[in-house]
Amino acid sequence: MADAVRFDRLTKRYGKRRGVIDLTFTVRAGEVFGYLGPNAAGKTTTIRTLLDLIRPTAGAITVLGLDSHRDSLAVRRRVGYLPGELALYEKLTPRELFAYFGSLRGGLDPRAVTDLADRFELELDRPIAALSRGTKQKVGLVQAFVHRPELLVLDEPTSGLDPLMQREFEELVRETVADGRTVFLSSHVLSEVQQVADRVAIIRDGLLVTVEEVAALHRRAVREVEARFAGPVPPGVFDGVPGVRDVTVDGDSARLVVEGPVDGVVKALARFEVIDLRSHEPDLEEVFLSLYQGGERAAA
Asked: Which residues contact 67 (CB under 8 A, 6 or more apart)?
């Protein structure tokens, strides 16, 4: 599969402060790529460099086969962008704003504006200054998607949206990649990334922690397993079982923490009569926290 974006040893420093350091990874064409990290981790710096809004200290970025700096105007024609800090022409109405942006691009189908506005329940003819924060976010989403760009770059896209509109956004993202286009989604709201992303990169203090398939992250995540047996079991029943740690056996019950596949645990349990079994499946937030905290320990 071709790459929509390629980061090659990207570094951006702000004087003595670091923004991002030596980032190397790719975003495949036709996927939803989640870019995760807490505030000030370097997500927005990465995006602004990708769009040539700021210049890298070192390294390079290729976007849709083009150099992000040398070919920046050509890149922007093919990209839809929603910034994390959204600023709009507030004296205009949304309809006027979209018409203005459309004129810069050489034209815009009014039906595309109407269709997206209807999906997000966006009133097109009120001044933007009179709109709520969540409604302004809808304006930002519509302007990013309306010209059907090959690549969507979205920085905290659901900020201020209610749950119904968040689900509508997720559905729009799925339709976008089904059409063969690509979404680069930066967020610290892990639940929204979990719903739509194929792969994720996790960034910590400007450094890349990991790039993995979402499914692979889940497979090696830590989970809790609780079992109750028909009678007491030996205290060492889980000794040597791969991935098992923090075991507590108390008479006819056991609680253990498992990292990665649970096949060995299932085989150990099958030696006894199990009358109740519970497994707490981790979500992406728990996976993220375990990786992030592991990165902090390694850095220390």
From this structure: 60, 61
Instruction: Enter the tokens of residue 189.
Output: 């709201």
Residues 6 or more apart whose CB falls under 8 angstroms from that of 222 comprise 257, 258, 259, 282, 286, 290
- Which residue type does 2 have? A
**HSE-up (13 A, CA, CB side) for residue 224:** 7
Q: How far apart are CA 125 and CA 117, in angstroms?
A: 11
pTM: 0.78
Is residue 129 within 8 A of residue 93, CB to CB? The reply is no
Region for 11 from its dihedrals, namely left if φ exceeds 0, alpha if ψ lies in -120 to 50, beta otherwise: beta
142-199 tens-digit pLDDT? 999 999 999 999 999 998 899 999 999 999 999 999 999 999 999 877 767 878 899 9
Residue 210 above 60 pLDDT? Answer: yes
